[in-house]
Amino acid sequence: MKLMDGFDSNYRFVLVAARRARQLQGGAKPGISARSTKACRVAQDEVAAGKVQWEIPVLVVPALEPPMELFGDAIVAGAE
Hints:
This protein has helices at 10-25, 39-48, and strands at residues 69-71, 74-76. The protein is mainly alpha-helical.
């Protein structure tokens, strides 16, 4: 399978099309006139035509505590 334009991997294309297919099975109206009546094929055609908007969520990772360091005889950041 050739990498679709606008996707960083074929896996992401499949995820987007699968999520759209679930929407179609739930009663959503198709965005294009497709040759097939199957939700999976209609979803693939919609994604290929650019009718499905998607984005990659940005994960915010909290800052980690600084590592413990020895200063002379004292332990800083986590002394007991």
